[in-house]
Specification:
By secondary structure, this protein is an all-alpha fold. The protein is built from 13 helices and 2 strands.
């Protein structure tokens, strides 16, 4: 299968520059947040074990208070708002440590860096919204796919473009993105084979889409869970990524197309009763570690 020329038009290339830099900044912000958590652990502050997001309103207020010189766990715990106030006792324990001026100095710089990155990412998003305006219809159609979202749609258009004449069919797009399964046989034996290295930016976006879609009640989620149970998560990601890219090709190739979910029971409905019976027997054997055989009902 030949590789299509993917020299994108200037407006797509500029959009790609913006979305890639935004993703880079988000990665840097995540790394900086992890450094804050490590700093707190060094000070024996276990805030992240109680607060799901220490950079939310409650967690940020506590961090700012500690940086400002407050060290009393009871006073810091009282800064919790909403449902977090039901955890005051646990919070006091988590905020008991030896956070001092040294930690406060470093934490201040880290939080300022996080705020700077957040501001820059917001500016990039505003610019991306302007740049993607000519492709708003295509972005809206992609947004209909479970797990994509507006950010995902922007990144997909930036990496793939909107002109699907570059790909004769969906299989060419899947192959170019390196999400096509490879069947490697030697001497009658199947061997594991990598799909190859594709566009890492597109791969990261597809991976996030699959992760989000897997938590929905849709065809893609059922497909992921079904394959992951039998063949592992890595193969499930490749298979569902294949499906997602196929859907993307059809939606971009036909401006009149819209996404219609097949439903979580689609694959099950197409499996024959005999095959379903075999699958259930295999599951039972894996659970019990014993051979199972069916007996006629009384």
């Amino acid at each position: 299968m030949c590789t299509p020329s993917l020299v994108q038009p200037r407006d797509i290339r500029r959009l790609r520059d913006l979305t890639r830099y935004r993703r880079t900044l988000i990665r840097e912000r995540t790394a900086e947040k992890q450094r804050v958590e490590k700093l707190l652990e060094d000070a024996q502050i276990k805030l992240s074990s109680v607060v799901s997001d220490i950079f939310g309103m409650s967690g940020r207020a506590m961090l700012e208070a500690m940086i400002g010189g407050e060290r009393d766990p009871a006073v810091l715990a009282q800064l919790a708002i909403g449902r977090m106030r039901a955890k005051l006792t646990v919070l006091r324990e988590a905020l008991t440590g030896h956070f001092d001026d040294h930690h406060a100095f470093i934490c201040r710089m880290m939080l300022d860096r996080i705020d700077d990155i957040t501001r820059q990412a917001a500016e990039l998003t505003a610019r991306i919204e302007e740049q993607i305006a000519p492709f708003a219809d295509a972005a809206a159609r992609l947004d209909e796919i479970p797990g994509v979202g507006r950010t995902g749609a922007q990144e997909l258009i930036a990496e793939i473009g909107v002109d699907m004449t570059r790909f004769p069919d969906a299989a060419h797009l899947v192959s170019w993105a390196k999400f096509a399964p490879i069947d490697k046989n030697s001497a009658g034996k199947k061997k594991t084979a990598s799909t190859g290295k594709g566009n890492p930016w597109l791969g990261a976006t597809i991976g996030e889409i699959i992760s989000a879609a897997a938590r929905t009640d849709t065809f893609l989620a059922e497909r992921y869970q079904r394959i992951a149970r039998r063949r592992g998560k890595r193969r499930a990601i490749v298979a569902v990524g294949n499906s997602v890219l196929t859907i993307i090709w059809h939606l971009l190739a036909d401006p009149q197309a819209s996404y219609r979910d097949l439903g979580p029971g689609y694959c099950e409905s197409r499996i024959s009763a005999q095959r379903r019976q075999r699958n259930l027997i295999r599951q039972l054997e894996r659970l019990t570690g014993q051979r199972a055989a069916l007996q006629p009902a009384a």
